[in-house]
Amino acid sequence: MLRQLFKLLATLLLLLLSCSIHGKAEEKNPLPFVDEDWGDGLKVLTTFKPAKCEHKAKTSDVVHYHYVGRLGIDGRTFGKSFDYNSPYIVALGQGRIIAGMDRGLLGTCLWERRRITIPPHLGYGERGVGSTIPPNSTLVFYVRLIKLERNGFSLGEDQSIESLWNSGLASYSRQEWQPTVDLLEEALKLYHQYENVTSECLKRCNSEEPPQLNDTQSAVFTAAVNDDSLMPQFLVYAARSKCIAKCKSRQLPSKLRMPDSDVLAAFRRHEPYSYLHYSYFKLGNIEEGAKCLFTYCFSHTETMCSEGLTYYRRQLGLRDDEVVYRIPGKLPHHKAYLVAKAAYENKEWQKSVDSFESALALYNEALEHCQLVCEDSMHINMSQHGVSGQKVAKFNQHSLSVDSMEYYALLTTIVRELLGCRTGCIDKLATVEGIHIDSYLQSHFHYLQFNYYKLGMLERAAETAATYLILDPSSVVMNENVHLYTNYSLN
Predict the structure, then answer these.
(1) What residue spans of 386-457 are helical by DSSP H?
(2) What share of the chain is helix, strand, coil (3-state, %, to 5)?
(3) Exposed / middle / buried, residue 33 (Cβ in 10 Å: 0-12, 13-18, 19+)
(4) What confidence category does residue 42 fall into, taking pLDDT thresholds of 50, 70 and 90?
(5) Close Cβ partners of 457 (under 8 Å, ≥ 6 residues apart)
(6) Start-end of H helices in 129-225
(7) In this model, does residue 83 exceed pLDDT 80?
(8) Contact at 8 Å (CB) between 472 and 478?
(9) pLDDT of residue 17
(10) Distance between terminal CA atoms of the chain?
(11) Which segments within 260-351 are labelled E, that is strand?
């Protein structure tokens, strides 16, 4: 009697547990899965789909999937990939698998699970497969996609900017325009992710406390750089480099933390947009091609820029002061500059003032970003050489002690490169649509002082003329204008 009672209680507990699990499943998926009719008797049912699906299988992709194959008539298993301890690997759309599976796998997300029901004429038809699959059998496959490759590159895994860049260039050399676009666009996504995190880390680490040197280290430092006044700034750079490396490691995948410096420099020069512009052009996408070329030519002076931009303006019906830009959310200072200059030539003084003031604000943002990029390049060099204010640095396979003169000589070289990079930012930003403009920053104030004069705002005209003189003190004309505006405003 007691044994029967225990059996009854156990049965009740199992029923309650079953109901609980069933209830939770219904709460998560209130609607049952339904077979989708894909035509010709092919049916596809998705049993699991990841919340985030960035990549879907398409023709020519190489898919890696596990499967269990069953006969539709009685559910008997005729094969499964687990028997071979490896997934099935095949390129879609090449006729290398039965037609029903070739079609049924299209659009699958990475890690998605599907049940694919394949009618006989899309399977093995009248011939069947020996004694395993009878003739005219309907087949039911349960599949799970575990890897997806496109153009020789694995999607959905930790990727590096370098590998995508190199694969994109290889596709470009083979004149494979769509693969080039796919690979370089993916590389740009990772690059922008790296830049956003890097900018945040650089700002966050600005307040990092520098390490303290003992008397011996201080004496060696002074002898190495021949200027003890530089010591505080060098130590700040060393401490900041260590902080930035930690910050990046917390927010970036391992393959993005330390990009190849040459590849990173190419992206910061907007070189991918040169290849993208031509690839999009060959694919017939004129609008995207124009955006890419405009973006590339903001920092390059080449014949391709002047001729190409003229062509795209004509094709898209753009005015001379209209600019299309590739990077979303970022308005280039060049665009505001061109609008302001056009307004000046049309004697629209107030519009010209507003646009030039806007251009200056955008220029300051661009200059700040350029200098942050320079600092990041320096910190990459410091990290690669192990210069972080710790006990040793590694350079050319040699360990350099903090007590050695070579340590600080190395640090001096790295920081000197930083200063050269920062100085180059002003020259870099002075390229507008493939044309380098001498005295680009000064020209903003040159136009502004005359605009303010025409608007009768003489104090503002004097201020902007005086600002021009800070940048170019030798200008005779601007010295006279400052004197003229000041006298007028006093009277």
Answers:
(1) 405-428, 440-454
(2) 60, 15, 30
(3) exposed
(4) very high
(5) none
(6) 161-173, 177-204, 215-225
(7) no
(8) yes
(9) 34
(10) 117
(11) none
